[in-house]
Amino acid sequence: MARRNKARTVGELKASGYKPATVKEEMRRNLLAMIKGKKNIFPGIIGYQNTVIPQIENAIISGQDIIFLGERGQAKSRIMRSLVNVLDEEIPVIKGCEINDNPFAPICKQCRDRLAKEGDATEIGWLPRRERYGEKLATPDITIADLIGDIDPIKVAEGRYLADELTIHYGLIPRTNRGIFAINELPDLAERLQVGLFNLMEERDIQIRGYRIRLPLDVYLVASANPEDYTSRGRIITPLKDRYGAQARTHYPTTIEDEISIVEMERRRFSGDEFESYVPQYMKEIIAEVTHLARQSPDINQGSGVSVRVSITNYETILSNAIRRAVRLHEKLAVPRISDLSHVHASTGGKIELESFEETKEGKLIDDLIKKAVLNVFNRYYQLDEMERLVIPFDEGLIVEAADMLDSRAYLGVLRRVASLGEMVKVVNDSERPEAIASAVEFILEGLYVNRKLSKTKIEGKTVYRH
Ligand SMILES: [Zn+2]
């Protein structure tokens, strides 16, 4: 409908031929049109094209409410929010209604009274789709009043009113009427609220302060849960579980490339930043590899998972350390290096749960993950036989120092002393700038160390590579 000709009253809306649809009908119709038009329905969702997205689409086409099962940091919230993409741009509502009443069939008392009195002259408004999404994290302190609503306790105490004469103070779900409501961590919702939710969705009525109140809402309900909580007995009442027609299992990025794409999309950026920075591909791969290895580690609680946020914050940390170095040493370009990885303990530690409770073990565990990640990434770029020539100068007594606050130019000297190092640097770096070369040199030195071609000692914040 053209914006300028939008109906302003119930009468004009009738004349325009508008046909109301339920939210499920509307989502289904729009989704099918988008599939037909080959539109990207879930922009910014990476790695789910062949797994999660088909399940969501089938649920919408079937008109099924959906629950997303997955560990933390698997874009569940993002997917739930992006469901608004399949809503109409805007829908007509009775103007001023708290629960977005359909102009042709209002359910709240105020609107019913108003429509009876004003008829076709009743004013309508247009509700944009971004305002048709509500969400709530299930916590123990949520009440029926928060989620569904309450009635005036004084009027109830006076006992003079019939249920349909009582004015309801609407909660979150009625305020999302004709839209999408998402409950995060559904198993944490108290059982009596789950019962209330089920009654609301299935029986379309609700008990408030002993009154049975009819509330025929039209809501597409989505929820998220950790699979362990969801399957554990008694966490979700059976009828509510049955109400969700579809379960979509989310997952972590299956490839390093997807992990990196998400990191680059999500990482924090600062506007007006005057620092020139560059993160080499191998450093991105190491960061993603650390997370992928953590997801396979038996020492880490895989039930709570290892979020993509570990990759994102670790990436931010090494870049920040590189910026700190550039500022301190008056260098022009910030390029993360291996020695910056010692700082990711701070951004990894709080985001993983160990199977045992030893703090000393955590540091060692993270160090081992980093070491293995460097090994895996290095060995994708280099063959072992290429390294034999490199270590000759070390066999003859060469010692090289590396440190996160060491001047990038200091590394150029190593290039002159190790003849074939220059060629190896070129495999991962085509920049002439000392900051980029320093990073590549550290990558190769560490690669030789993790392949047991060099030894390494740490002395007063410096790393010393030698035979
Ligand atoms: Zn209303």
Notable characteristics:
alpha/beta; 467 residues; binds zinc ion; 14% strand; elongated
Question: Strands, helices and their partners?
Answer:
Elements: H1 10-15, H2 23-36, H3 52-62, E1 66-69, H4 76-82, E2 90-94, H5 109-118, E3 124-128, E4 133-137, H6 144-147, E5 149-151, H7 153-158, E6 168-170, H8 172-175, E7 179-184, H9 191-203, E8 205-208, E9 211-214, E10 219-225, H10 227-231, H11 238-243, E11 246-249, H12 256-266, E12 276-277, H13 281-294, H14 308-329, E13 333-334, H15 344-348, H16 359-381, H17 387-395, E14 400-402, H18 412-417, H19 421-428, H20 434-450, E15 455-459, E16 462-466
Parallel strand pairs: 1-10, 1-11, 4-7, 7-10, 12-13
Antiparallel strand pairs: 2-3, 5-6, 8-9, 14-16, 15-16
Helix pairs in contact: 2-3, 12-13, 12-14, 13-14, 13-16, 16-20, 19-20
Describe the structure in brief.
With 467 residues, the chain is an alpha/beta fold. The chain has helices at 10-15, 23-36, 52-62, 76-82, 109-118, 144-147, 153-158, 172-175, 191-203, 227-231, 238-243, 256-266, 281-294, 308-329, 344-348, 359-381, 387-395, 412-417, 421-428, 434-450, and strands at residues 66-69, 90-94, 124-128, 133-137, 149-151, 168-170, 179-184, 205-208, 211-214, 219-225, 246-249, 276-277, 333-334, 400-402, 455-459, 462-466. Helix 12 (256-266) crosses helix 14, helix 13 runs antiparallel to helix 14 (308-329) and helix 13 (281-294) crosses helix 16 (359-381).
Describe this structure in words.
By secondary structure, this protein is of the alpha/beta class. Helices cover 43% and strands 14% of the residues. The strands form six sheets. A five-stranded parallel sheet has the order 4-7-10-1-11. Strands 14-16-15 form a three-stranded antiparallel sheet, with helices on one face. It is elongated, with a radius of gyration of 30 Å. The structure holds zinc ion. Residues 94, 97, 99, 101, 106, 108, 110-111 line the site of zinc ion. Zinc ion binds next to helix 5.
